[in-house]
Amino acid sequence: MFALPLDSKQALIQWLNPCLPTCIALYRRLQFGHFTPGSRLFSSVDLTILTHGKVPSSPWIVAFVDRTCRPETEVWIAASWEHDTPADDSWLPQADDLVRSLLKEISKAEIIPQASSPITGSDKSTSLPADTNGNGSVDRDQYEKHLMNEKVVLLGAVHSSTVAILKRLGLLDSSFVGSDMPYQKYIFDLRNDVVPRSLPPGFAYGKVDPKDYGLVKSRTQIPRQDRTLRKLPSVAIYHEQGGSTASTPIAWGFLGLDASLTTLHVEKDYRGLGLAKSLSLKLFSDDMGAYWQHNPSDEERYAHADVATDNSSSQGVCKSLGGNWYFHVFWIRVDTDG
What we know:
2 domains; 29% helix; FR47-like domain-containing protein; single chain; four-stranded antiparallel beta sheet
């Protein structure tokens, strides 16, 4: 397993490009940047091969790791068998070894003390839901249990084929939920220009103000930290009345660290107006360009979302945006001592 320098991210992005959209979560996370002193890139393929665009015939795995993000997602992975699964099982022993080797490197990754103690101030408030079922989220006790145990690491948007390997190797931490909670990966092909929709009279677009993070977190089943929300592109919708705009949003959405459409919410009294679709199109049109500017070519214009299998309303929004369900992903916690 090779540790790659962070300044090699563009070479890695170019090398991963043929594996889209399967590797989109890691691909977009690299494009987003916002690396910290604790960020790490690992690859089973030598950097000199990557830079020459040669794809090895044997199985490979690459990962972005940032343990300072804990207890939110700390690892994004892409592997050859996710994009192109061999017809027989001859590749499995190699894949097993690669996964073990990667987890060994992850276990050595440094956790910067100051950055790994995020639950302070407002983050300890009741804005963290008592019961959560979002992306790899768990109830409050398990969320805090993860925070207190530095040996536990959260892997995000993991392809079902890699989850199967982790299960077979007995590497999943059974004390946490996640491995039995699949999410549908929706892909949006936005090569045609995305045009934001005009809002109904009495509404206006804006951004999510940090003063409203408590409200945002109280409405989601996904534990979020203020420090994460500050990094993310956002769109909010505000009610206008009497020539003035309300100070509190009635709908909002974000692009995640991996550019996935996330934390999309419309307050109950304003549902049925198509605002969720409007938010999504506004995010795509205003903010996806920051990722696409790092694309190796102009041909790729993908966006993506992860939707729980029982979330029919979000599935409906994704379909209305032209999204197609490609595969299942999971948010899973692994004990690196396991």
